[in-house]
Amino acid sequence: MEQYLLLAKRAKGRALVDLIQKATAEPGLLAFAELLDVPNVKELETSEHAPAYHLLQLFAYGTLLEYNSRSSSLPPITEEQRLKLRQLTIISIAEEKKSIPYEELMQQLSVANIRELEDLLITDCFHQGLITGRLDQKQKRVEVLDSVGRDVRASQLQPILDALKQWMEGCESVAGTLEERRQWLTQAAEQAEKDRAHAESQVQAAKKSLASENDIRVGSREDMQIDDVEGPSLDAMVEDRIGLGSGRPKRRQKTHAA
Fold it and tell me: 75, 52 in Cβ contact below 8 A?
């Protein structure tokens, strides 16, 4: 399109008509609003070449069915231009419907039979990336998943802006809800960390308390073992020394003279 825009800024009259014919037949070129906005092109609307300007408008916003209904007041089109209008028509329908009956497409595209229609859809739409979807041959319809966009008329801008505004308001509402949730989660995490630290300090204090009590108990047991074992042994030694070990005085051993 950039090449055509540069040429249109310098062209006049019949040269512009030829330029429009070439642009509308250019494979892969689907948007023409920028070309319509070129001042030299706008001047065609009030000149003897107005039909060329209206044809360009049709390629920007219209369909093949519209061309057929106005063909007497518009320049004749080539097979390349007719194919382009068919592609643009399919895109326009796919923007509004996600399930398109074969019968409707055949009427809109002036296609004689289903085989021709399916070839057009597969070769000139699916393979070109204009629409994505599948052919339901059993139900005789096209299931559309996505499609490229077309030029937008000025009258279509306000509904689009209203839809975008509504979408943005919905996004802001969701963002506000998410922010509130984030703050709640942050506060909950901070409180959980405080509770964990408090519980950990209580556990450590309880461990120290139990350790101290255990040391005291161990010390008491050791003292008791000394009293029960070592104490009586010392007393027995003392009693044995003073002759009270068996409860009666020990006899002295007699010494026999040699």
Answer: yes
